[in-house]
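Hi Y.,

Following your request, here is the sequence exactly as I used it, all 167 residues.
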Amino acid sequence: MIRIERLKKDDLPAFHNLLLKVFDDGFSYYPIIAQRYNKNHWSIKRIDEYLNNEDFLLLTAWDKNVQVGYLIGKYFQPNKSVILWLGVIGTRRGMGVGTKLVKRWELWSKGKGAETLKASTANFENERFYESLGFKKSSRIVKNDWGMKKIVFVKEIYFDSHQKSTF
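Below is the corresponding structure, written out as tokens. Let me know if you'd prefer a different format.
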């Protein structure tokens, strides 16, 4: 049974190890310079700083006592929320872990007042995943900092402005 929780400070080292494992396993097609940048950028210190910032959401997916996935999201004023990183260990992909993480992020985003949700990926195999969650593919393909093509997905959420969900 997969459970989704907000990252706790005590779980930060294991979260960081999971992040590095997913980088190694799932992002090997990134140029070496991009892999190094991401590993350095997503340091324990930076993640710890985000734990104390109310505009960031750090989620971890657990199977029993093992972290198997993560999501790092950010809310931008006045009404947009973005997935910065979503990762699931290879042995758990296709089992609903990513879906649970994204749905929990959506609830949090809605509670913050987001009306537009965004996600992007340089892995074109993820297109069906995001579309299955109601995201629409952007009409243009952009390039990331390393010249890799990436797809941007957008989802508009509508709700009564007096109805705020919390997480």
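Residues 162-167 have pLDDT under 50 and may be disordered.

Thanks again,
Q.
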